[in-house]
Amino acid sequence: MPEQLEEKEQTTLSDKASSQLTEAIVTGKLEQGQKLSEAYLATHFGISRGPLREAMRQLEGMRLITRVPHAGARVIDLTDSMIEDLYNVRVALEGTACRAAAEKMTEAEIEQLFSVLDTHEQDINAVDGKRYLQSEGDLDFHYRIALGSRNQMLIQLLSDDLYQLLRMCRYRTSQLSRRTKPALKQHRQIAEAIADRDGELAELLMRRHISGAWKTMKQVMDEET
User: Which residues contact 165 (CB under 8 A, 6 or more apart)?
Assistant: First the structure.
């Protein structure tokens, strides 16, 4: 029994460490391409080595960390072509998920979707429209739609395999004040189409929404270049 308790505690610590490191990478506190030193991470985040190593293995699975032989671990460096590929995949997958969600989501889930958007609007107003940040998981509009599709393959891709990489991209555009109000309006239009059970319109609106996000991201990348 003591061994089981110790194992459970280690799992809890590694999950906590994984969440901390994930947010640091998504928000750029740990920069893309940055070399990751266990000693630095353990000290900076107050994580012991055992849970830290397990957390780093989890982040490798999320594609947030890469390991190079004889060079150690680094934060993923998303090139312009990788980001373009991600957005092209997003358009197809999230459009399909949206159409399915219009058919499969329950009335209670749709109500929760609107409730999430109400929370987002309050958050945006609290910072005078300067940014539109979405927390991971249930407070994420796109995450809820993926779950609502009831398509396990889509859920795996959008809520697990690609999720944190997509969040990295979305975080960069969420800091642009010109994007906040239009993005929220588009989210509400998508939610309304889902509530009306209009899968064709929901898919079209989601595709337009993500295409617009890609244009904004492309502008950001061009400005940085």
Answer: 62, 63, 64, 76, 78, 86
* Residue in 35, 39, 59 with CA at minimum distance from that of residue 49: 39
Task: Judge whether 121 and 132 are in contact, CB under 8 Å.
Answer: no
The two tokens of residue 184 are 């929220």
Residue 146 has pLDDT above 90, yes or no: yes
Q: Which residues contact 54 (CB under 8 A, 6 or more apart)?
A: 10, 11, 14, 17, 18
Domains contained in the chain, CATH given: 2-75 (1.10.10.10), 80-224 (1.20.120.530)
What is the C-alpha to C-alpha distance for residues 114 and 137, in angstroms, rounded to an integer?
15
110-131, pLDDT tens digit by residue? 999 999 999 999 999 999 999 9
